[in-house]
Amino acid sequence: MSKKSTKLNKAFNKKHLIAARKIVSKYEIILTEADGEFYGRGLEIPTVFGDGSSPDDCMKNTKDALVATVAHLLERGGTVPAPASEGKRTEQVNIRLTPVEKTILGASARSQGFRGLADFIRAKALSLQAT
User: Fold this and answer.
1) pLDDT tens, 105-130?
2) What digits encode the pLDDT tens for the residues 56-102?
3) How far apart, in whole angstroms, are the C-alpha atoms of residue 43 and residue 41?
4) 27 and 66 in contact (C-beta within 8 Å)?
5) What residues contact 24, with CB distance under 8 A and at least 6 apart?
6) Which of 24, 48, 94, 113 is most buried, judged by most C-beta within 10 A?
7) Strand partners, 45
8) CA 115/CA 120 separation, integer angstroms
9) What SS3 class is residue 33?
10) How far apart are CA 94 and CA 72, in angstroms?
11) Is residue 32 a contact partner of residue 38, using CB atoms and an 8 Å limit?
């Protein structure tokens, strides 16, 4: 019986590695510090981490981890998250309303020129943050 295994030391396809570096160059990295050690994670892929003894070291290690992850996704035909700076709406939030609430909010959205209820709710919620 033979088991198929994935080699962890296999080099990435050069085309995928170049594409991954270009994509990751637009990613945002969030750094934190604890007890003199720095930790980074990608905003677009928050499960990818790096660390380092300095902010620069941490940034480099986190970018390297992100490049490896994106290159792997590209090679496997997976979906690569768009850079947050592009402002693409990829996240969804579901809310439950009563029929009466939906009617009231829908009428209010239309009266204010919104195309739909989601645009209305998003605009109103984000306007609260600005105040």
Assistant:
1) 999 999 988 888 888 888 888 888 76
2) 999 999 999 999 999 999 999 999 999 988 888 877 889 999 999 99
3) 6
4) yes
5) 63, 66, 67, 70
6) 24
7) none
8) 8
9) strand
10) 31
11) yes
Q: Residue 116 is which amino acid?
A: G
Question: E strands of 28-81, at which residues?
Answer: 29-34, 37-42, 49-52
106 conformational bin, left if phi > 0, alpha if psi -120 to 50, beta if neither: alpha
Identify the architecture of domain 14-86 in CATH: 2-Layer Sandwich (3.30)
Phi/psi for 33 (5° steps) reads -130, 135
Digit-coded pLDDT (tens) for 19-54 = 999 999 999 999 999 999 999 999 999 999 999 999
Annotated domain spans of the chain: 14-86, 99-130
Instruction: Kindly tell me the sign of the dihedral angle through the C-alpha atoms of 71, 75, 78, 83.
Output: positive
Closest by Cα among 15, 16, 23 to 42 = 23
